[in-house]
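During the practical work, I selected for study one protein's amino acid sequence and its backbone structure tokens, as given directly below:
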Amino acid sequence: MTWHPGLIIAFLTGLIASGHISTNIYAPSLPSMVDFFGTDAASVQMTISIYMASFAVGQLIYGPLSDRFGRRPVLLGGLTIFVVTTVMIIVAPSIVRSVDLVIVGRGLQALGACSGPVVARAIMRDLYSREETAKVMAYIGLAMGLAPAFAPVLGGYLEEWYDWRASFGVVLAFAVVVFLVALKMPETNKHRALNAAERPITLITNYGILLRSRAYWGFVSVGSLVFGGMFAFMVGVPFVVIEILGYSPSSYGWFSVSGIAGYMAGSWVTSRITDRIGVDRMVPIGVSIVGVGGVLFLVLGLWGFLSVYSLFGPLMLMAFGMAILFPSTLAGSVSVFPRVAGAASALYGFIQMLTAAVTISIVGLLSDGTHMPMVWVVSVTMVGAFVVAMVGGPGRGKRQPVATPGE
């Protein structure tokens, strides 16, 4: 079966979105979940940090499995887990009102949801060249911008009309649709037979090859720091907007659209210039814009100016830079060793999600009732990514050749 190029991009967009929509949509409900479960903000934020940590670990499993057995069967297994655990999250609190059950459910949900992005990134490397992958990711960024933009808006209204479980009902419907489309997905792994002939331990030791690659680390470290900063903002800002500034959950959802607008604008720029500039040069451009946004965010915070403008203005700038940065760090990381694109994609996602889990936890631990812990964590990660990129990141050394046999 041959898919139309537009259908492939739409499917890949759905796979990548499946890993993030289940967090974006219920972000406006985080403050009300504190009251629902009779707990504190740190416990509710744990539903996100545990998701990130579990998401990170799960990718390490799916990557090598998709290299060995193929993208399609591994993806279908993961999406099945995603659907079943989402049902659990919706139903369990009706039986026992405990935030711990939701935390456990979110950890299990992530183990299924992470199959989508990790397999999608590997499929892109199966089908496209290095620069083409970055360009396709830019188009996906444009398309994905719509879902994350309106997920918090929808989640805000669902929270006001019903409660946080309604948002997970939407996640369930989305997961089922992606699963049904995946049933018709053709296999794209051209190295499956060759990888299957190797010892299973080889697919695991490929992680060692990747971790020893300076080129791989250059792309992953920069992308992960920015990714962690983005999620620190996403988890901390609902409490600032709703509890400190006094806006409604639905208003917060609309404010969050500003970040997606910046991301979509950056994605449009990326889709137009990647072919001419190349992946290695795109990374410094993107991380420089992100770094400026991080400095602006910190300056406004230290100045004591707190409003939706001081929060979402710098976010638009950082999101614009992220849209230039992320496609290139992804394309660069999975192209270092193309035959093990699944493992490269998995490790990339693992380090990204682990970084996000750490930054989210730090925001929760430093919480003092003000917006400054979030400001510090976001600014340090964004500026830190700029420093890493300038000192020894992507484009600072020669591109490393493929080191695995059979290429």
About this structure: The radius of gyration is 20 Å. The longest helix spans residues 214-244. Residues 37 and 128 are 47 Å apart (CA to CA).
